[in-house]
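I am still learning, so can you show me any protein sequence you like together with the matching structure tokens, please?
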Amino acid sequence: MRITKRTNIAVRLLMYCAANEERLVTKSEIAECCNISENHLAQVINQLSQLGYLHTQRGRNGGMTLGRDPAEIQIGQVFRHVEGALPIAECFADTDNTCPLASACRLKLALSEAAQAFYRSLDDLSVADLVCGNVDLLRILQPVACGTAAGVATANARPQAAPAAG
């Protein structure tokens, strides 16, 4: 099975947001750090925000954050949502299926079962599993490591809740 570029971008984007959870992140810093075209990234940001995986804020001090706790974002669900009904073989396509074996082929059922098993195996994996405690990844996904100005972190910082008195 081959993962689409869009799904690859979606997972990188979610990991970047999780690694920088304490602040708003920008499209340009993600594009630079994760080696992604800003045009492709914009399309994925739009899709993930519509699906509730991201919160976006427009404007001069805009950016994005995860729309859910990273532990609640299952990679299998992200793959299903982003990949959609992409046929894994010609015989799965509603149109353009020219295979003369499609009506009797057992491979189609086997491929369908294999794809579902693939997604199910990813359901046990969350964005938090990919990021939390992964020191090497966290080092890579920091703005300074990516070449982004260090001031981004303070300029877009979200206000932190004051500790409870006690």
The radius of gyration is 19 Å. Residues 22 and 162 are 14 Å apart (CA to CA). The domain at 5-155 is CATH 1.10.10.10 (Arc Repressor Mutant, subunit A). The first strand starts at residue 54 and ends at 57.
